[in-house]
Structure formats: C-alpha cells, structure tokens
Predict the structure.
Amino acid sequence: MAVKSGYIYILKHPSDSSLVKVGITTRGPSERLKEHNTDLKAQAGKIVAKTGKKWELKEAHKVPDVYMAESAFHDRYPLSDMPFLKSEVFKMDNQIFTEDWVREGINLATSVGIRSDVTQPPIPKTKPKKGQEWVKEQLKDTGIKPIKGYGNGITRVLFECEKGHIFKLDSGTLCRFLACPVCSPESFDSYSLRRVEFPHEN
C-alpha cells in the first residue's frame, strides 16, 4: 500500500455540540466536508438529512501517511476492544468518548509519521468475530445463554445466567469477560459494567 499524505480532520455538528466526526482524506478537508454533507446515505449524511443542518470543519492537520494516522487513532481503547464498531462519528458521553479522548487520538495520529516499511500497510484492524455460533462457543462453559436474538457485537442482547439473572449487553463485550455482571461484577472493567442494562421487572 503506497504512502499517501493528507489530513486527519474533525467535524462538528450544529445540531448537537457533543457530536463529532473524525476522518482522514488525501484531498482537501473542505472537499471531503462537502461530500459528507451531500452523501445522505452515509453515516454522517444521515445526520444531515435528519436535522437539516450541515457538518462544519472544526480543525484539520496535515499527516505524511494517512493510513498510518488512521491506524494510530483507532488502535486504542475502547475502539481496539470493539473491532466491530465501524464508526467515525462519536457522541461525547463524558465517559470514554470525551474531548480529551479525541485530542489524544489526534495527537497520536499526527505524531506517528510514515511506516518504517513502506511496502507494508499499517497494522490492519481486527476483523470482527460475528454470528450465533461464535457467541454460543464463547459462552459454552459459562452457564450464560442469550434469550432474545443475537447481536454482532453492537446489538444489545438479553442474556440469562444459570442463577436466573437477566441482563442486556452487546455480545462482543460479554464475550470479552465471560461472566455474569450480577454474579461477578469484579470481572468487568468499570466502563463495561456501566453499559449493562437490566430489564424492568413486571
């Protein structure tokens, strides 16, 4: 993969100050911005279509190797633990996706330079492990079973442990920890534990 220079940029959206988009381009950031505001089928464009408001360019930084810069931004927590998350639009939630988190990623992306071996691409993103069979295999010896549908790592699924605790969590996260968040909350990190939902009792 040839080395191409370009930009890493941040867009903001006037409809919601917590929405940002981070992307790379080998062309001018303004040209890419125009595409985001007119391609109404893409993720960023759907927000334009829904709100009637266009993305605005917040900042752009020149990088010598756009693919290296992109890898540097994505190869960190929590994106490194969620390879199934194919998104460059982030909602700042003051937990993980924060302004500091974005700033850290931009600093990394602008500092990594060019690949030492330019004949090789940057480290590829991990391919997601999807599907019912993979989830079943991962949970085989845990006593936990899905009771409503299967997700691909993004979709939240209802699970039940062998003690009857019912909780909702995306299958990708659960398969990282392989434990019931009620029986063994210490097995989870604090961020993942906060993401667990419990259905309302009738």
User: Anything to note?
Assistant: Residues 6-111 form one domain.
